[in-house]
Amino acid sequence: MKKLLLVFLLIGPIVFSQQELEEKTYFSEALYFNLSDYNRKADIAYRFNDYEKGKELFENFTSTHLEGSYMDNFKFRNLRKKEVQLYDFKKPVFLITYASWCVPSKGEIPALNELAAEYKDIDFVVLFWDRREKAKELAESFSKDISVVYVDESQNNGAYVVRQLKHSLGLPTCFLLSGDKKIMDIRRSVFPPLQTEEETAYRENYIALETSISNNLVNSYDEVYADNVQVE
């Protein structure tokens, strides 16, 4: 009887953790089963210039099918050409995607720099779909509190990453990931009208981004930290 109890104590936690792992739905899997339906409906909306409908479809698709799934351990390269995996970032992650032909929203970069300086318990990551030289040039606008990575499509590297993260939802797209890389929120950038004053554009971006961060990442980080303290 004692032997059986010992086996249960040793095996039980392992089986439970495997069960938890098997129940996870990953971002790539959620895309596979739901992306084509979203694309079909979104294409019709944009064909008729119904941008409000397109926005509604995007928000419904991401909130219903993608949020709550876990981001795959995608691979990128940093500006020193070293391979970087998403799971190398141990804190909650604020990930936003850009490219040289996709101009950031007015006031967005200053807002990101400010938030990265304020939220030290979050990893801010900017992903460029560009050559290293271009990514390095564009990275100069971002503070040292932000990690800049890139995927160079011209080298045929990271094709899987490109297909999943870039061509599925377009860009710029922002992903808010908990410490265990669960997708808490997916959002598009704020684009104030061109005539908007720089300071006003900055404030609009700051408020929108800070609200999303405080609602989705700060609480999740605090909960994980509290759980760890209780376990110890």
From TrEMBL:
Keyword Isomerase: yes
Keyword Transmembrane helix found: no
SUPFAM superfamilies: Thioredoxin-like
Domain Thioredoxin span(s) in chain numbering: 65-212
Highest taxon in the source lineage: Bacteria
GO molecular function: antioxidant activity; isomerase activity; oxidoreductase activity
Name of the protein this chain belongs to: Thiol-disulfide isomerase or thioredoxin
Lineage: Bacteria, Pseudomonadati, Bacteroidota, Flavobacteriia, Flavobacteriales
